[in-house]
User: Fold these one by one.
Assistant:
Number 1:
Amino acid sequence: MKDLYRGSLVRLCDESPEMLAKAFAKWNQDTEQHRLADDDPAQLWSEKKIKEQIEKRAENTSQSFRFSIRTLEDDKLIGGVGLWVASWTHSETWLGISIGDRDYWGRGYGTDAMRLIVQYGFIELNLRRISLGLHAYNERARKSYEKVGFKFEGRMRGEGLRDGIRFDSLWMGILREEWLAQQGMLP
Amino acid sequence: MLDIQTQLFEAQDIRFGPIDHETHPEIESKWTHDAEFMRLLELKPARPLSPAMVKKQYEAIEKEMDEEKNLFYFTIRAREDDRLIGKAMIEWVSWTNGNGFIRLGIGAPEDRRKGYGSQALTMLLRYAFGELNLYRVTAVVPAYNEGALRLFQKFGFMEEIRRRKALNRDGEFWDLVSFGLLNAEWREQQNGRG
């Protein structure tokens, strides 16, 4: 059997809400990080409030599969990744990832975590497809997603507005059969 | 020119009205017993709902409208007798980005293909762009819903995203198509008509 949680650079794990809240409270203050990962306004939350948010979303484990990302080399907590199953009947699932610690951007850590979460989606959750969205200006993310096998499915024109500038959002998806073929796992 | 005389909620044969918690649950309950209606409008598994369940949903809708301020829900009524014939909404509005998702449906089969959907969409777009001042709207349509595909194409929406095989119904896989219309494009259409 495969080791679902261990890649070549990172591992997926669960953290105590205290530990995670501390890390997020720090990452949240990096607005570039927030504006790469999210489309809601950057906000500063207290560690206490973040901990409550984490505890609240931990209640919904039947549709939401969230992990923390730690480096293999020195066991450092660097970000989070997760799948949210919007519909089990259609196997419609959304992927979200953020590498909060900017020292680990552009070095393959995010892509390694992406490979693990996609694998988890297809061989543990037995999903049929996985979807994701990103800002068009997030070039690094797009390259990473393409490496993992996501295909471009469309663009929403001018969906976002930041610093007075309109930008598109991009939408990508990967089908189970595409992933299996890529892994050499097709029968 | 600012035209506040033309009513936002009045069209030729239909009008938008609020939810009626007394009489509507009974009617909408009937629609939910029509699996075709449910599968055209919803991605959730079709399931019949009793009037009591519909009433609960209405309460949840009005609570969300009131507290979250990002949902705008209208019932569609026939002007001739004010009977409930459908629903239309703008949901998941993102105020900072100026966008929202639109959805509408005509409940009873005998009320479909009479142009009510077009009239409702006309009002919904004027509301989204002229009242909420959104920059763009999105409509997500299953590829098997040919009526809806035609409607949004007719109104000048652009197909923006095609999520491959995102739906599984009757043992077949269907794409989920996402259409977009910008405020500027809509405004140009209005000027062209004027």
Note: The first strand of chain B starts at residue 14 and ends at 17.
Number 2:
Amino acid sequence: MNAKERLQIPPQSMPEQEPHVRIHNQQEVPLGFTPELAVKEAQRCLQCRKAPCIAGCPVSIDIPKFIKMIEDGDFKGALAKIKERNMLPAICGRVCPQEEQCQVQCTLSKSKKAIHLAVSIGKLERFVADWERQQGVMDIPSLPAKTGKHAAVIGSGPAGLTVAGDLILMGHDVTVFEALHKPGGVLTYGIPEFRLPKEIVNYEVEYLKKLGVTFKFDYVIGKIKSIEELLEEFDAVFIGTGAGLPSFLKVPGENLLGVYSANEFLTRANLMKAYDFPASDTPIFAAQTVATIGGGNVAMDSARSAIRLGAKKSYILYRRSEKEMPARIEEIEHAKEEGVEFHLLVNPTRIIGNNKGWVKEIELLKMELGEPDASGRRRPVPIKGSEFIIPVDAVVVAIGNSPNPLIPKETPEIKTQSWGGIIIDEQTGKTSMKGVWAGGDIVLGAATVILAMGHGRIAAQNMHEYMMNGQW
Amino acid sequence: MTQNQILSKEKIAPLVTRFVVTAPDIARKRKAGQFVIIRVNEEGERIPLTIADADAEKGTITLISQSVGKTTYELADLEVGDHLQDIAGPLGSPTHIEKYGMVVAIGGGIGIAPLYPITQAMKKAGNHIIAILGARNKDLVILEKEMTKVSDEIIVTTDDGSYGRKGFVTTALQELIDQKRKMDLVIAIGPAIMMKNVAEVTRPYHISTLASLNTIMVDGTGMCGGCRVTVGDEIKFVCVDGPEFDAHQVEWKEMMLRLDMYKEHECRAMERYRKEKKAQQA
Ligand SMILES: Cc1cc2nc3c(=O)[nH]c(=O)nc-3n(C[C@H](O)[C@H](O)[C@H](O)COP(=O)(O)OP(=O)(O)OC[C@H]3O[C@@H](n4cnc5c(N)ncnc54)[C@H](O)[C@@H]3O)c2cc1C
Ligand SMILES: Cc1cc2nc3c(=O)[nH]c(=O)nc-3n(C[C@H](O)[C@H](O)[C@H](O)COP(=O)(O)OP(=O)(O)OC[C@H]3O[C@@H](n4cnc5c(N)ncnc54)[C@H](O)[C@@H]3O)c2cc1C
Ligand code: SF4
Ligand code: SF4
Ligand code: FES
């Protein structure tokens, strides 16, 4: 097939659950490519010699190579190619912000300045990973001889899982300590089932268990064991404890009944399966009108969860315009299809309660866009005297999370940034404490799955060297 | 003997059960004032319970639970040999223990369970302890023997006068104050309304008063903010910043409202549980 023929193939769209159906269930929204659709989509790739897409991927997957293998029907080979760089393709294929990473660099979208024309790299990645899982045979690679070294990994989010996987494949023993009763970090307690089925996270964890990784749940490091104590038992320690500390608005009324942090709202809904109440024991307040504050993935997940929990109205309240929203384009589109109403350029100033202490209304201030700020996005500026009130009966605050302070607080030897992130050496992942590495959201603040994995990969390599030669 | 296993179970008052369970790492590490979060089964809710006692050598911790809703009823249904699904801990900041001089330890109802390890540690630190234990009636006074052991003086009050002195713990406290007894610290643990009333009694005399808050929790690690309370002008997370706070600074009204947030759900869960249990027995 020549380039011209390839250019004539339109972008293949992935079948999805219809909005009016999916708002009544928790099942995944996009249903996945069939092999035929995947091959067709793969045929669109021009196999560019310079492959700019690779530079857009934080872990530098050889994108054209794996796409070519899909085109040739070698799905197994394609997956192996991806796995050279990315341990969790079924997850990244679903949740990576592709439109800012690999796909924004794709020649097909760049030349036409139309992001939707890019090769659907993420969807193809998802396809091969799903294809393998559906074959029902888990490919367990043979392990090298044991090194006799033992590493501790704190936190079972994408950063921790990556470190565990890499180290076990290098012959080390690995124990993962997780504070909650289930593995996966945000992948389990935060991102909803309809966007990332927990079956996939469990599959990846099962794989690690089969390779011999030990998981210890309900283990809050810093409380049950200090880092110093871990270093007596283990040869190296990785901290991947994420950015779990929710920010609040600091406006009056924030502690009224019906005001949730997104973390609490999503944890109740996902980890504790509140959507199944009373078959599951953990309740959630089934509000009729829910206002979610924020414009990122966390906000979209909350607003869409609210609809599935029975809300008649679900609002997104965001202080900038849609263009500045950090959420993935797909999530914004899905939210709109599901009836989420977007109120842009507004900022909450107060939450008003009824006489029983429950949320009744929220007061908003209109904003306009000013000069770009440090992040390059135009800064929202309040319009004086423009306050107005809308009735709501629950508020979900999704304005960001910062690094979990528990371990740094208990371990003064580990240096942190003023905003709480653990300071590491970028090249190695080392912290200021000998024998201790860190990566993912605990270092970056709330970032992305693929960046957490990238960090994990660098740290694992360096931990391996340290455990083998003892040089810090 | 495996992790999370119930080694003994004893009813110490109507609806109050004491369990000894295996949790060696927690037993070794825990300090007075800390708690665990447990789940009874796979679909279960995460609920906080204070570590009422621990034996580091045997690797066990003691939990005392009052049956008030579905999860605590289910817990009370477990038998020796059964396992709890999850025990995470020790959580929360330990009580700051030092020699203050005179410490008044006030426990109401099930609050006596969390009060006991703190009193024990305060006694060990060389404090003179006056314990005031309060309950609705005689049957509900728990841990009197244990508390007597770690106190220098003990006063028991019951609402109906069926045991000890008739009245509330605050009545006894006010009397001590009126007798000009010196007090360096008051610690109050019990129903929120009791802790609030204790704070009101000591406030005019500027007696340092601590309360241990029992807010609703989910994770217990500072991740969800569900346990938040206003203390002074700040928002605090009870699970990591507490559970103990200056009782004079706590925004009690807000805290008590938040505690009842899921009342309706809790009733539904309980009804369903009762029905299921009936069906099982039939
Ligand atoms: C709702 C939501 C939606 C998101 N959507 C996307 C998306 O679409 N795409 C994307 O790329 N990113 C998304 N993100 C961000 C992404 O999930 C995170 O960047 C990523 O999970 C960070 O990985 P991590 O391994 O560093 O930490 P986490 O995933 O946060 O995992 C940390 C783990 O450590 C555990 N832990 C914490 N403290 C301790 C302790 N003391 N001892 C033991 N264990 C501890 C925690 O319980 C947790 O399981 C989203 C985040 C949220 C909250
Ligand atoms: C740090 C901490 C330590 C605790 N230690 C103990 C302990 O040692 N022993 C013990 O018996 N209980 C203790 N509690 C309270 C215990 O967690 C609750 O009783 C339990 O969560 C109730 O769960 P349930 O499903 O049985 O009842 P639910 O159905 O959840 O509630 C039933 C009733 O109890 C009330 N309630 C709900 N949650 C709480 C709460 N957190 N505190 C008080 N009342 C509540 C509700 O308003 C309702 O009326 C502690 C709480 C905290 C925060
Ligand atoms: S890992 Fe993410 S950024 Fe990299 S190719 Fe896959 S979808 Fe794109
Ligand atoms: S830039 Fe796009 S078309 Fe070119 S190789 Fe990468 S995916 Fe294929
Ligand atoms: S219980 Fe979630 S932050 Fe305290």
Note: Residues B 217-220, 222-227, 237, 239 surround FE2/S2 (inorganic) cluster (ligand 5) (CB under 6 Å).
